[in-house]
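In practice, a research group might receive sequence data for several interacting partners and want a quick structural hypothesis before committing to experiments. The following worked case mirrors that situation: the sequences arrive first, and a predicted assembly follows.
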Amino acid sequence: MLAGILGQDAHTLALWDHVFAAIIVFTILGTMSLVLKSKLSPIPGGFQQLMEVIVEGLLDMLDDNIGEQGKKYLPLVGTLALFIFVANFLGMVPSFSAATGNFNTTVACALIVFIYYNYQGLKEHGLGYFKHFLGPVPALAPIMLPIEIISHMSRPFSLAVRLFCNISGEHLVSMVFYTQLFAWLIPLPIMCIGLFAAFLQAFIFIMLTMVYIGGAIAHEH
Amino acid sequence: MYKFLSLVGMFLVSGVLLAAEGHAEAAGGSFFGPAMAMAVAAGLCGLGQGKATMAACEGIARNPAAGGAIRTAMIIGLALIESLALYVLLVVFVKT
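A structural hypothesis for the assembly, expressed as tokens:
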């Protein structure tokens, strides 16, 4: 029915799985935020307390990793954290698919992080940001430059691959057990690990984001 | 040590020979290469994560007050080691 509305056949529509899942995720997050914002009170109810715990945890981590200026990166880091966390968890619910289980979504998140931390580094240091790539001693610059460039290029790739493979790998192994090995309760421990991995991968993603931002804006003394 | 390594080497070589046979029979190419690579990657990842967890347990046992920080560092280290095995899984995904 939806296929008829959009004018595509069902097979093409199934390729847009991750788009619809991402739309559902940010609809959930958006309505949650708007509802919470209209009900903010000095004596917090249950849900506001939960959100305060999350925000305080993020601020603590930002303070640990970036230092004093950590607070101004809270919007990006918080958005990424909530989006990836809710997207991963929604994939664990039986008939939903994970938005981050598709390589396109995770590459998008990783590219946002890559462009953002380079932009912040350029904003902080101006063109002197590129001196970071030359290494500690100017004599080592010809060796350090390709190494640094390769390691910086590998950062968004590793972020995207880590998140994608963790989430879709769990689905894949569950599918193999369901369809080929036909053991009804065996996927259960795999899905438990999948739940743990859903939280852990969101945490690792934003931890690495904070480390990269901190590294980009760091001032050597 | 050398006996163990030569044993592993014998298995790997025989695996390569079996893959060559399978490739001659099946026109579509064998799956043995990526599967073997994934097995080796998973095994080495297990060893690496075992060492990381062992160091974390010793650290917490010596200094329980620093348990939170050690636990955080261990979790980050485990995820980074895991991602190395996941790069090989990506090759498996691309292959099939």
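Before designing any experiment, note the following. The CA atoms of residues 34 and 92 of chain B lie 6 Å apart. DSSP finds three helices and no strands in chain B.
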